[in-house]
Amino acid sequence: MKSLNEVEKMVGLNRRAIQEYESAGLARKPSTKTNKGYLLYDTPEIERLWQLKFYKECGYNIPEIKKLQEKGKLEEKEEWERLIRELKEKRNQLDNLILIAEEILERSLDFNTLRNSMFPAEEPQWDHVFEWMGLVFKLFKTADTDRMFQKITFTDEESDRMLSLVETMLDFKSKGAGIEDGNVQNAVSAIHKILSRELSGSVAVFRTFIGILTADTELKDLFGEDYGKEETDFTLNAFQFYCEQHRENLCDQNLNQAYAHLETLARSNCSYRSEEVQSEIGRIHEFLSDIKLFTKKGSKEVMKLMSELYDSQSFKEIMDRGAQRGFGWFLSKAIDVYLHNLERKKEETCMTSEEIKIFIETQEKVGDVWTQEQVMDVYGEESLQEALQDRQRSISVFSDIIEDVLNRSEK
Question: What does pLDDT average to over the chain?
Answer without folding.
Answer: 84
